[in-house]
UniProtKB/TrEMBL annotation:
Biological role stated in the UniProt entry: Modulates RecA activity.
A GO cellular-component term linked to this record: cytoplasm
Protein name: Regulatory protein RecX
Pfam families recorded: RecX_HTH2, RecX_HTH3
Gene field: recX
Length: 155
């Protein structure tokens, strides 16, 4: 915080910072998400909110990269694929390059994940074209690529 701020502005800065830290203590937030929530609470303080977020990022209390890793891990456990996660994270204001880098990490093994999701939903392999189409649509909806779906349905 800067020394030249008026006392009431300094108090507002502290309130915003406290609110931001409270939100981050509950779960990770993207910078954009955090800004949106703070703007709802303090609608007339956008410049202070931006400074608070910048300060939180400098102190590594808020990190879009950490948020992206946590988000991908959580949604992957729930059975969602990379295409869907890319769209969801874009909507949450995360940089596309950061998302692509995280989604391409070798530990994610998306085709294997698609197979697990498919076996959980459909106990038996597709017996005909109609059932195979249904399984393909399900995996597409979950956000898996055509290549990943093809690999899973061929095995």
């Amino acid at each position: 915080m800067h020394e030249t701020q008026a006392p009431d502005q300094a108090a507002t800065y502290r309130q915003i910072r406290w609110s931001g830290m409270d939100l981050l203590a509950r779960r990770e937030h993207s910078g954009w998400e955090l800004e949106q929530k703070l703007v709802q609470r303090y609608p007339d303080s956008l410049p202070l909110i931006e400074r608070v977020i910048h300060d939180l990022q400098d102190e590594l209390l808020q990190s879009d990269q950490r948020y992206t890793q946590a988000y991908v891990a959580m949604r992957r456990r729930k059975g969602y694929g990379p295409h869907r996660l890319m769209n969801e994270l874009r909507e949450k204001g995360v940089d596309s390059e950061m998302v692509v880098e995280e989604l391409n990490q070798p530990e994610h093994e998306w085709a294997e994940q698609a197979g697990l999701v498919l076996r959980k939903k459909f106990k038996a392999p597709a017996s005909d074209f109609k059932e195979r189409s249904k399984q393909m649509r399900f995996l597409q909806y979950r956000g898996f690529s055509h290549e990943q779906i093809r690999e899973v349905l061929q095995s």
